[in-house]
Amino acid sequence: MASPEPGRPLLAVRSVAKSFGAVSAVRDVSFPLYGGEVHALVGENGAGKSTIVKMLAGLHRPDSGTIELDGQPVELHSPADALAAGIAVIYQEPTLFPDLSVAENIFMGRQPLRSGRRIDRRAMNARAAAYFTQLGVAIDPDRPARGLSIADQQIVEIAKALSLDARVIVMDEPTAALTGVEVKRLFAVAESLRAGGAALLFISHRFEEITALCRRVTIMRDGAHVSTDPIDELTVDEMVRRMVGRPLDTLFPKHDVVPGDVVLEVEGLTRAGVFADVSFQVRAGEIVALAGLVGAGRSEVVQAVFGVDPRDSGEVRVDGKSLRGGSPAAAMRAGVALVPEDRRQQGLVLDASIERNITSTRLGSLAKLGLLVGGAERRFARDWAARLQTKYSHLTDPVGRLSGGNQQKVVLAKWLSTQPRVLIVDEPTRGIDVGTKAEVHRLLSDLAADGVAIVMVSSELPEVLGMADRVLVMREGELVAELPRAEATEQTVMFAATGQGAAA
Fold it and tell me: Which ranges in 254-327 belong to alpha helices (H)?
């Protein structure tokens, strides 16, 4: 990939605007992308980043403004147009054809042919292997795409971009579902693309990744361009201030609460091959965090507590009363609520309305003589949406249209409306922006102050340390450490999580 002329951007977004009905998604946004650079695009959920990405991908056309390549305006009417122009988008969760091989996915519709118009599989696999070698990764081109990790699927999409001579590569939240090792590998791949002269647009909510990888950053707020600056001229605090448009008092507004009586007791919880002999208690007004590496068994434990997953042995008690295993309905009747890790697959019905998602746990109480009263449902949903400061156009819109942060607020509203005694939140702020994170943290702190017992699963150590009264560390399915707030540091938690040191 050749570098563009010095001083001229490879791609430029010039005063683009896009509206959907009465909603203005993007207003007068401009920024350049230079070859040989990684450029960050940041902003809160709903700031307009996804609309920009879809315009670059050819899924949306700007209502006004232009997109330029090598100084010339281009019109992208479809994803095929974008690919033909050398623009490729790598999404958080790629969509490969699972029953085709890796090489077939890379060269779909462009397979090398032998005489007689038969596909030359040897040549196709060799070319795919060469791209993987260029990227510094080891993936068998002949293996089926089914079963590939998200990280490997992203690498396959990047190899496809290379095969199309893509010069502009957009990475939309590529690290959200990756482990630390996979993130490092992706960064190495991004560096090789940058060194080859490509222009990379990197979208992430993780500031440590932005500062480590990117040379320039564009900040958006409420659909508008705020600033574009070299990354070394901005502090994280300044980026946050520009993103949210207001001073962020604190990301972790934790109230000091004296815990009350024990509400949740978990004793000897075991599921063969997943976790073993897990015991802990949570008191009223207490936030207890389950920490550990990915695969340690944290999510599986809380799903068994709620009854989504079975347990082989052990007991769960709420207010001293034993909870029947394998029954989420029994957990709900006892006052337990679970906000799952995967809000889109487990927490929401994406095609259903915002109001129906919010009221789905309370339909029985809103019905009269077995019939749902629409006005009552609408008022109930509007009240809870307002309490959580949810941004939406109409309550009747499908919840799938909302930004990630607002979807998370709908899931929280759905469960908080049950007035739980125990609230379990699994990765409560994954994939949402810093301003919404602060709102979710404030909500959790207020709930604890009101006497709710909270169990929080989080892979973000700052969140664990900032919000938890106690930290329970899991490793390979076992509870290996219990740390009070005063003793929980990044070092003590990681030592326990990796088995490299003793924690009291």
Answer: 298-306
Average pLDDT, the chain: 88
11-96+148-244 and 249-335+420-504: identical CATH topology: yes
The model carries a pTM of 0.63
User: Average of pLDDT values for 386-390?
Assistant: 83
DSSP code of 228?
Answer: E
Q: How far apart are CA 297 and CA 300, in angstroms?
A: 5
Pick the CATH number of 11-96+148-244 from 3.40.50.300, 3.40.50.620, 3.90.650.10, 3.40.50.10840: 3.40.50.300
CA 356 to CA 28: how far, in whole Å? Answer: 35
pLDDT greater than 60 at residue 501: no
Question: Which DSSP helix (H) or strand (E) runs through 236?
Answer: helix 236-244
Domain boundaries, the chain: 11-96+148-244, 249-335+420-504, 345-413
Token duo for residue 356: 């129906």
CA distance 499 to 394: 50
Residue with tokens 């995967």: 342
| DSSP state for residue 144 in the 8-state scheme | B
Q: Which residues of 424-438 are buried (b: 16+ CB within 10 A; e: fewer)?
A: bbbbbbbbbbbbbbb
Structure tokens that stand for 55 in this block = 């315009």
Q: Is 368 or 444 the better-scoring residue by pLDDT?
A: 444
Q: Does the structure show a pLDDT above 70 at 113?
A: yes
Domain 249-335+420-504 belongs in CATH node 3.40.50.300? yes
Q: Which value, to the nearest 10 degrees, does the dihedral of the CA atoms of residues 271, 275, 276, 279 take?
A: -100
Q: How far is CA 406 from the centre of its chain?
A: 13
Please give the distance of CA 9 from its chain centroid, rounded to a whole number: 30
Secondary-structure breakdown of the chain: helix, strand, coil percentages, each rounded to the nearest 5: 35, 25, 40
Where on the phi/psi map is residue 439: left (φ > 0), alpha (ψ -120 to 50), or beta?
alpha
For residue range 203-212, list pLDDT tens digits in order. Answer: 988 888 899 9
Q: Which pLDDT score is estimated for 295?
A: 78
According to DSSP, the residues that pair with 353 across neighbouring strands are 398
> What is the C-alpha separation between 437 and 412, in angstroms, rounded?
13
How many C-alpha atoms does 320 have within 13 Å on its Cβ side? 1
DSSP 7-44: TS-SEEEEEEEEEETTEEEEEEEEEEE-TTEEEEEE--
